[in-house]
């Protein structure tokens, strides 16, 4: 089996991973390897992007910096300390490292409500990705719903692609969003960007305190009654008010949650932040996790946006190279971004009412078609798994686990390999060193 | 709050569940205390193969009667128990193993168990994804596969319909002669206790000859038709049962979900349930020798669990030789799912003074009474 040995392995070539690589090399690290399951660097936000100034700046720093990029490569297991197992197309390879930086980003959180599994109801980022990949949105009526700044970014992008954005429904209460906005007015970057976006989307209603209640189908059925594609979505503001908006697509995500599968597999401590309804990796001032030699940066330490990801990546890159002196001047700024991130995550944490959205027949585990009524009375995630197959399918809770955590207060953590579906052959590989062992 | 139950069962795995079901059905006032949730111990880790084995007459007797009880349950089991009467193929790699297949066939035939020898071509037709050139197989059509956690849950539900009480999420910290102390400090009083805590049974009853024996399992995404039976290599007997050393063998089965379940490994003296990549790799390598196409299937999860092994490979069913009011129902090693219904029946026979369905002597814990010090 092919092997790669490096001094610093960085998983994820998003803003955090790129910044970590650039900083590590700058501080003198040799043999830095960045691994990402996509062919190109950039992560969720900058993949294929060229017209954003910060993106361009970091791409220009990253590409010539001397760190090697191993694209289209997925880390699937961590068979022993210092060793990762990866799949690259049909190939399997072992990666040996001295230091590891996890920059694995976040994914969208989906919360179930009647009809949410119908065709053309998608993740906000998911629809954005499909559109970038060629799905024509010209003239299509799109409702964007859920929570977080992602909704604005996605709506903006789809609007530029010719979609008719009928409405953006933000579940967070208007005063909470306003407070966050005020807090941001003084600071550069993120909010200014969000506000600008909103202005550009002028004419598109941005309804704060509103959330989807139910999706109805083109065949006249409502909620969970059929699999017909979405024809309209009913939104509510919690009070008696409801509006029904016809649409071709519903793009829906309730903010983001850190991707922690690898952190858990490696044994890094994570913490549940109740007010943010979010689990994140625990790190110290130098972005060190609880596991010796393993650092975390970017969304995996708590959703924080690009600027937080960049600065954490830089600190992790320096610290992993032993250049704490270079990192020190960045700590204050990082802490400021973190405080902002905390405020943002509190603002966009799903409101408790959303727990009431599923009806008995609402599917909550898409892989295994498990319905709300089957699991609501279970005592734990494990009981739900064992007795209903909830979370036992191909996603292994990566998709439904976040919802289960919110709806039922279940911890859906798993530290079993593989972190994603992996060819069995890959798991038959053993790093050469221990091959003679038994 | 009631004063005392007739019988308190420690553990809601498939064995505890089967005991509760049987005892409650016969009118005993039963309480089951389960630390996690129904069927979450070895019962959740096992492959759920309901198989007649012939390592010894005593093993066969309990297996065989259990299998008959399984067949009686079959109609009543809900769909989520995934009962699949797919039969077992004992795959023989060479002539030596083929001889073993023939011996087994005769042995089964003499005891009324249907079994059929397949030659190399017939095996290839029965399981096209096996490597060509295997010598043949023994096909045992009466064996089946179940999803044991749901069976345990269903048995406990049925026990509750018959008046039993189930407490989940609480651990017993001490089993006394008049009840049990739970981890929240509460006390459940009972006239008699049954230790059905699987591989953890010695924590509650120190000194019983039960050792945890770890096993790894791999499950794939859905590939309906890739495997058509439960297949076990005949080398299994030489490999895994024979010694105390770590061993792996090729065991694969189809699930009603279309998934493929792959086993298995055996290790003593490990208590950490973490996946061990080295042994996992060996196990998969062994499987690839038999079924190379498995290598391309997507694995979605691996896990490990603990069998409760005894020195003579037979379970402990019956009164504790010295401790008052204490009964045991554990030590089923790799056959506890198969043997659960028979165990429930036998234990109820013994506890409620009925007539025993089969001779209980080989399973009585008293057989180790003299060697206890050694295992203690
Ligand atoms: C769906 C989605 C859409 C978004 N859209 C926007 C937007 O339009 N505008 C905006 O401002 N922000 C957006 N964000 C937020 C933005 O992605 C983050 O703020 C920022 O990119 C975080 O950077 P990061 O480096 O921490 O993570 P990411 O940019 O997410 O990078 C993590 C990288 O790690 C890779 N990875 C993870 N696990 C493995 C593994 N096991 N093996 C190999 N590679 C792995 C991932 O594929 C990814 O490329 C979006 C986020 C998501 C999830
Ligand atoms: C990898 C593997 C593959 C297997 N394959 C098969 C197979 O194909 N066919 C087959 O027949 N058998 C198989 N087995 C064996 C089978 O799984 C076990 O024999 C069977 O599940 C034992 O059931 P049990 O109820 O005795 O134990 P368990 O299922 O372990 O149940 C014991 C229960 O007691 C609870 N408990 C423990 N301590 C306490 C306490 N102090 N207080 C309260 N509750 C407590 C536990 O939480 C647990 O739920 C396999 C086992 C393994 C590990």
Describe the model.
The complex is a heterodimer of chains A (438) and B (376). The relative contact order of chain A is 0.16. In chain A, a hairpin with a 4-residue loop joins strand 19 (270-273) and strand 20 (278-281). Chain A has a five-stranded parallel beta sheet, covered by helices on one side. In chain A, strands 10-17-11-12-13 form a five-stranded parallel beta sheet. The model of chain A is unreliable at 434-438 (pLDDT under 50). Chain A is of the alpha/beta class and 438 residues long. Chain A is built from 15 helices and 24 strands. With 376 residues, chain B is α/β, with parallel strands linked by helices. In chain B, the strands form three sheets. In chain B, strands 1, 2, 8, 9, 10, 11, 17 and 18 form an eight-stranded mixed beta sheet that branches. An eight-stranded mixed beta sheet of chain B has the order 5-6-4-13-14-15-12-16, sandwiched between helices. Classes of the chains: A alpha/beta (438), B alpha/beta (376). Strand 24 (422-423) of chain A pairs antiparallel with strand 16 of chain B. Bound molecules: flavin-adenine dinucleotide (2 copies). One flavin-adenine dinucleotide binds at residues 10-16, 33-36, 40-43, 45-49, 171-172, 196-200, 204, 215, 217, 263-264, 305-307, 330, 332, 334-338 of chain B.
Largest interface: A-B, 33 and 40 residues
Please state the structural category of chain B. Answer: alpha/beta
Q: What is the gyration radius of chain B calculated from CA atoms?
A: 20 Å
Q: Quick check: average pLDDT of chain B?
A: 94
Summarize the biggest pleated sheet of chain B: 8 strands, mixed
Helix and strand element order of chain B? EHEHEHEHEHEEHEEEEHEEHEEHEEEHH
Which segments of chain A are poorly predicted (pLDDT under 50) over 5 or more consecutive residues? 434-438
Count every helix of chain A, treating DSSP H or I runs of 4 or more residues as helices.
Answer: 15
């Amino acid at each position: 089996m092919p092997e790669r040995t490096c001094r610093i392995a960085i998983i994820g070539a998003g803003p955090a991973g790129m910044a970590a690589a650039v900083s590590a090399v700058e501080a003198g690290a040799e043999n830095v390897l960045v691994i990402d399951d996509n062919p190109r660097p950039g992560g969720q936000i900058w993949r294929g992007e060229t017209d954003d100034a910060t993106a361009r700046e970091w791409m220009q720093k990253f590409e010539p910096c001397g760190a090697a990029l191993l694209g289209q490569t997925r880390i699937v297991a961590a068979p022993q300390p210092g060793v990762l197992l990866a799949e690259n197309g049909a190939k399997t390879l072992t990666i040996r490292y001295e230091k590891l930086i996890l920059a694995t980003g976040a994914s969208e959180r989906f919360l179930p409500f009647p009809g949410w599994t119908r065709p053309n109801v998608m993740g906000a980022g998911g629809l954005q990705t499909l559109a970038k990949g060629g799905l024509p949105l010209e003239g299509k009526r799109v409702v964007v719903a859920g929570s977080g700044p992602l909704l604005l970014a996605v709506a903006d992008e789809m609007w530029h692609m010719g979609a008719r954005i009928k409405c953006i429904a933000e579940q967070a209460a208007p005063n909470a969003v306003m407070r966050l906005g005020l807090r941001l007015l003084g600071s550069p970057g993120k909010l200014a960007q969000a506000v600008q976006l909103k202005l550009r989307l002028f004419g598109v209603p941005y309804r704060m305190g509103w959330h989807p209640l139910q999706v109805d189908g083109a065949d006249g059925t409502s909620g969970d009654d059929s699999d017909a594609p979405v024809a309209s979505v009913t939104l509510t503001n919690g009070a008696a008010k409801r509006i029904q908006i016809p649409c071709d697509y519903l793009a829906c995500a309730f903010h983001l949650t850190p991707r922690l599968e690898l952190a858990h597999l490696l044994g890094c401590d994570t913490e549940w932040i109740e007010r943010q309804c979010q689990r994140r990796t625990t790190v110290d001032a130098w972005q060190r996790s609880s596991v010796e030699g393993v650092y975390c940066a970017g969304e995996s330490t708590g959703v924080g946006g690009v600027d937080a990801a960049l600065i954490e990546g830089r600190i992790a890159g320096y610290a992993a190279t032993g250049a704490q002196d270079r990192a020190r001047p960045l700590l204050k700024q990082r802490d400021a971004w973190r405080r902002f991130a905390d405020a943002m995550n509190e603002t966009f944490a799903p409101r408790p009412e959303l727990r009431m959205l599923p009806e008995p027949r609402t599917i909550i585990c898409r892989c295994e078609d498990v319905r709300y009524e089957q699991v609501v009375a279970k005592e734990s995630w494990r009981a739900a798994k064992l007795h209903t197959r909830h979370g036992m399918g191909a996603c292994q809770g990566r998709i439904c686990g976040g919802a289960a955590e919110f709806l039922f207060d279940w911890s859906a953590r798993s530290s079993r390999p593989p972190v994603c579906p992996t060819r069995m052959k890959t798991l038959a590989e053993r790093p050469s060193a221990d091959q003679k062992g038994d | 709050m009631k004063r005392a139950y007739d019988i308190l069962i420690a553990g809601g795995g498939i064995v505890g569940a089967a005991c509760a079901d049987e005892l409650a059905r016969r009118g005993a006032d039963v309480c089951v205390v389960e630390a996690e949730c129904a069927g979450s111990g070895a019962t959740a880790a096992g492959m759920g193969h309901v198989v007649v084995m012939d390592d010894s007459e005593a093993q066969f007797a309990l297996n065989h009667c259990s299998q008959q009880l399984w067949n009686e349950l079959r109609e009543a089991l809900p769909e989520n128990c995934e009962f699949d009467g797919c039969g077992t193929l004992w795959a023989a790699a060479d002539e030596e193993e083929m001889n073993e297949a023939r011996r087994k066939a005769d042995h089964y035939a003499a005891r009324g168990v249907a079994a059929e020898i397949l030659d190399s071509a017939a095996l290839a037709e029965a399981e096209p994804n096996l490597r060509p050139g295997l010598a043949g197989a023994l096909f045992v059509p009466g064996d089946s596969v179940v999803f044991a956690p749901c069976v345990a849950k269903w048995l406990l539900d049925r026990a509750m319909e018959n008046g039993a009480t189930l407490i989940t999420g609480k651990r017993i910290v001490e089993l006394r002669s008049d009840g049990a102390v739970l981890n929240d400090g509460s006390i459940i009083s009972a006239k008699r206790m049954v230790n059905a805590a699987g591989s953890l049974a010695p924590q509650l009853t120190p000194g019983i000859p039960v050792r945890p024996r770890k096993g790894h399992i791999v499950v794939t995404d859905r590939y309906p038709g890739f495997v058509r039976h439960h297949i076990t290599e005949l080398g299994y007997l030489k490999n895994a049962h024979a010694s105390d050393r770590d061993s792996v063998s090729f065991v694969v089965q189809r699930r009603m979900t279309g998934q493929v379940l792959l086993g298995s490994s055996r290790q003593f003296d490990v208590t950490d349930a973490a996946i061990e990549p080295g042994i996992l790799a060996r196990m998969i390598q062994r499987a690839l020798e038999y079924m190379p196409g498995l290598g391309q299937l997507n694995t979605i999860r691996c896990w490990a669990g603990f069998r409760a092994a005894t020195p003579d490979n037979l379970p402990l069913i019956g009164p504790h030789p010295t401790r008052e009011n204490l009964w045991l129902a554990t030590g089923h090693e790799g056959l506890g799912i198969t043997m659960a219904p028979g165990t429930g029946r036998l234990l109820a026979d013994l506890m409620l003074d009925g007539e025993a369905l089969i001779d209980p002597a080989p399973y009585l814990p008293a057989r180790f009474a003299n060697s206890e010090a050694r295992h203690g």
